[in-house]
Amino acid sequence: MSHIPELLERYRRGPELLAMVLTGVFGEEEDFAAAPGKWSIRQIVAHLADTEIVLAHRFRQVIAEDSPTLIGVNQEAWASHLDYARRKPKQSLETLRRTRAENYDLLKALPESAYDRAGNHTERGRTTLGQLLETYSAHTESHARQIGEVREAYKTAKGKK
């Protein structure tokens, strides 16, 4: 039995999981970093929005082309040069939601055999469409947990526990 339907459901639910963990975040909590060099909630959500845009391109490359090159990105350079520290979390979440919904609609219509198609990632090597789906489903879940941890650290730092 294939695990693709389960992965698709995890992928689809990612933005709502993120929305739940962001409920009530505002003001200085958006910009709190748990430690020097760590990202704030604002930066994490901007990262997820941009990652989804990159993923949209990667999905389409793997679906449409034979063994395309999937170029890795320097996430720290993106965070700095794309001004993650000033991006609005609500807009970033909406970008993630819209792009994810379009990606999901594309993916759910594919035959199962399409998930074996692959590209060559410049950092990870051969990567199938199924692996991309799994990696980025887990990516959103991981960052949702990270945001929860940042929120707890913020409460502790502010004496709100």
Helices and strands, with pairings:
Blueprint: H1 4-22, H2 41-64, E1 69-70, H3 75-81, H4 89-108, E2 118-121, E3 125-128, H5 129-157
Parallel strand pairs: 1-2
Antiparallel strand pairs: 2-3
Structure description:
With 161 residues, the chain is mostly helical. The chain has a single domain, classed as Up-down Bundle (Four Helix Bundle (Hemerythrin (Met), subunit A)), CATH 1.20.120.450. A three-stranded mixed β-sheet has the order 1-2-3. Strand 2 and strand 3 form a beta hairpin. Helix 2 runs parallel beside helix 4. The termini are far apart.
Concise structural overview:
The protein has 161 residues and is mainly alpha-helical. It has five helices and three strands, in the order ααβααββα. The radius of gyration is 17 Å and the shape is elongated.
